[in-house]
Amino acid sequence: MLGCVIHGQDDLRVEELPSPVPGPGQVLVAVRYGGVCGSDLHYWRHGGAGDFRLAEPMVLGHEVVGTALTGPLAGRAVAVHPATPCGVCPECRDGRRNVCRDTRYLGSAARTPHVQGGFAAQIAVPAEQLRLLPEGLEPRRAALAEPLAVALHAVRRAGPVAGKHVLVTGAGPIGCLVVAAARSAGAAHVTVTDLLPAALEYARIAGAGTTVRADDPADPGWPSEVDVAIEASGVAAGLGTCLRLVRRGGVVVQLGMLPPGQSPFAGNLVVSREIELRGAFRFDTEFDDALALLAAEDAFDGLISAVVPVREAESAFALAADRGRSCKVLLDFGTS
């Protein structure tokens, strides 16, 4: 079967891999679509994602949907929750399984041996990680469940946003899905900033009320202040914008993964304005909520820029990395 394997920086290969044999408690899944995530791009372009560095070849991918081939859901369309938390650490016992200290996450180099990912024609995963697709939800749109779950978790980390003005810095795929998540949570208005006009157009598709060129201080869309700010660009400048524009006593959520090492930020504003700065990492039960939201709204289809056969994975990655031409790019394993 074909799989998409990263061997190091700029070394992405589509290879013939042995078909997996499910172990105890595992189910075999035929993957149909896999969404190319920012972390996949980081492994490709930089040999690592954040502080997680490649030490061995790894099958990429954690945004996957397909058909269960074995188990109780055999023959049914399913989405795969990519996390397997340990269930026994203090974080898991405290109901925060998304920050489990010993989790396994598809396509992650956070531990060695690395956890092989879902960009393969067939994968074997624990049965409890499968989610039956809601009635009427097509697999193509369901491939957005994982990044939408990330966005839903970030919005929930901000607290109640109903009736509030929310700022989102960064209009990549995650930023656009944060817009959709904030709107679904009742935000009165969402302002989005980015450097690229094409990215801002995708933010409008997602439901942004105002879009702002981040490099244009004279843009009339800049708000004087907002109630909540969610940083989704992964650059320190975006965090600075959030801290400057959130109201006194407001909440800033850092969702974008900043570059490794130290990043400067306006810490004095956190003190003098009593801003609450909160991190948001992955998700837990939001995965199920994401599937329900995707089933209810068809506007998400406009965020899928392209569907590319897995044999052309490198061109798909190049397209996904070009934010002037794309939002979310899917790999299609059904044509392999």
Secondary structure category:
alpha/beta
How far is the first residue's CA from the last residue's CA?
Answer: 8 Å
Number of helices: 10
Q: Which descriptor suits the 3D outline?
A: globular
The tally of structural domains comes to 2
Strand content: 25-35%
Q: Helix fraction?
A: 25-40%
Tally of extended strands?
20
Give the topology string: H per helix, E per strand.
EEEHEEEEEEHEEEHHEHEHEEHEHEHEHE
Q: Can you walk through the features of this model?
A:
The mean pLDDT is about 95. Strands 3, 7, 8, 11, 12, 19 and 20 form a seven-stranded mixed β-sheet that branches. The N and C termini lie close together (about 10 Å). The protein is built from ten helices and 20 strands. With about 325 residues, it is α/β, with parallel strands linked by helices. Helix 5 (about 175-185) links the parallel strand 13 and strand 14. It has two domains: about 1-130 and about 300-330, Quinone Oxidoreductase, Chain A, domain 1 (Alpha-Beta Complex); about 150-280, NAD(P)-binding Rossmann-like Domain (Rossmann fold).
Summary?
This protein is α/β, with parallel strands linked by helices and 336 residues long. The protein is built from ten helices and 20 strands. Strand 1 and strand 2 form a beta hairpin.
Task: Give the topology.
Elements: E1 2-8, E2 11-16, E3 26-35, H1 38-46, E4 48-49, E5 52-53, E6 58-59, E7 64-68, E8 77-80, E9 83-84, H2 90-93, E10 104-105, E11 122-126, E12 130-132, H3 139-142, H4 145-157, E13 165-169, H5 173-184, E14 189-194, H6 197-206, E15 210-213, E16 226-231, H7 236-245, E17 246-254, H8 267-272, E18 276-279, H9 286-296, E19 304-309, H10 313-321, E20 328-332
Helix pairs in contact: 4-5, 4-9, 5-6
